[in-house]
Amino acid sequence: MKIGFSGTRKGMSEEQIIAFIDTIRDIDTKNTITEFHHGDCIGSDEQAHNIVAKDLNYCNIYVHSPIDNKKRAYCSGFVCFEPEGYLKRNKIIVDVCDLLIAAPLTDEIKRSGTWSTIRYARKKKKSVIIITRDGRVIKI
Fold first, then answer.
1. Rounded to whole angstroms, how far apart are CA atoms 26 and 117?
2. Which run of H or E residues covers position 48?
3. Considering the chain, what is the average pLDDT of its residues?
4. Strand order, beta sheet including 35-38
5. Radius of gyration of the chain measured on its C-alpha atoms
6. Cβ neighbours of residue 52 under 8 Å, at least 6 residues apart?
7. What are the boundaries of each domain within the chain?
8. What are phi and psi of 61, to 5 degrees?
9. Contacts of 58 (CB under 8 A, 6+ apart)
10. Helix (H) or strand (E) holding 126
11. Tens-digit pLDDT profile for residues 15-62
């Protein structure tokens, strides 16, 4: 299974981190996660990368870096793609994944990269798991 991830550059809350770990472990009970794609930003992307690299050391991590180096985490992965603009990069992540896991900062708002990515995933009829700041897991 190919997992995509999108989250706030402010970083996941402790509750989101715990729920993310539990979610990844639940999905991967039979070593079914083969790829993990993220946007290489500071904050949630970097946290998710480190968790997946530690917990799923057999999983290939695909890094989709942003053009803006100020917010880039410089994660290393199995494949590191050429940097793209945020919206294009987020769409690429959704297009290649089977499931998007998202850890937004707030409830849905219009001017949010994470929420834009969630909306695009819904439009593309991808499975989505949203992990709220308080650690609730919402499957769409």
1. 23
2. helix 44-55
3. 93
4. 79-84, 60-66, 35-38, 2-7, 99-103, 127-131, 137-139
5. 13
6. 24, 36, 59, 61
7. 2-139
8. -100, 130
9. 31
10. none
11. 999 999 999 999 988 778 999 999 999 999 999 999 999 877 767 999
For the ranges 16-20, 61-65, 76-80, 92-96, which has the lowest average pLDDT? 76-80
The third-level CATH classification (topology) of the domain covering 2-139 is Rossmann fold (3.40.50)
Collect all residues with Cβ–Cβ distance below 8 Å to 26 and sequence separation of at least 6: none
Distance (Å) of CA 13 to CA 6, 7, 44, 110, 133: 14, 11, 9, 21, 6
Q: Which of 136, 112, 129 has the alpha carbon at shortest distance from 8?
A: 112
CA distance 31 to 45: 22
Task: Indicate whether 110 pLDDT > 90.
Answer: no
Cβ neighbors of 64 (< 8 A, separation 6 or more) are 37, 38, 39, 40, 81, 84, 89, 92, 93
* Poorest-pLDDT segment among 88-92, 103-107, 115-119: 103-107
Q: Which two tokens stand for residue 57?
A: 């050391």
